[in-house]
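Lab notebook, design round three. We kept the backbone fixed and only want residue identities now. Task for the bench partner: fill in a sequence for the structure below.
Input structure tokens:
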């Protein structure tokens, strides 16, 4: 029988989504330069404007956190997505 901690750690993808979502919310909310100027973010800044891109990233972060929580709770089975298929 798995302990409670082991059960929640089994869904590592969920924890990863939660962590990425939290960092993204803070990056967008506090307008961190390294966050708002990296990767594909300039595309969304050009598309929506700086504040629009921040709102977009906050909304996407909330979606990531919700998916992560659902994964940790076992509602979403991440093992299906993590299996290698040849």
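Proposed sequence:
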């Amino acid at each position: 029988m798995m302990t409670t901690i082991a059960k929640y750690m089994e869904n590592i993808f969920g924890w990863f989504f939660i962590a990425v979502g939290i960092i993204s919310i803070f990056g967008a909310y506090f307008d961190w330069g390294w966050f708002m100027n990296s990767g594909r973010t300039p595309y969304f800044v050009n598309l929506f404007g700086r504040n629009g891109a921040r709102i977009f990233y906050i909304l996407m972060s909330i979606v990531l956190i919700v998916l992560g929580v659902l994964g940790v709770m076992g509602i979403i089975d991440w093992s299906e997505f993590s299996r290698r298929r040849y």
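Keep this in mind before ordering anything: The chain is about 75% helix and 0% strand.
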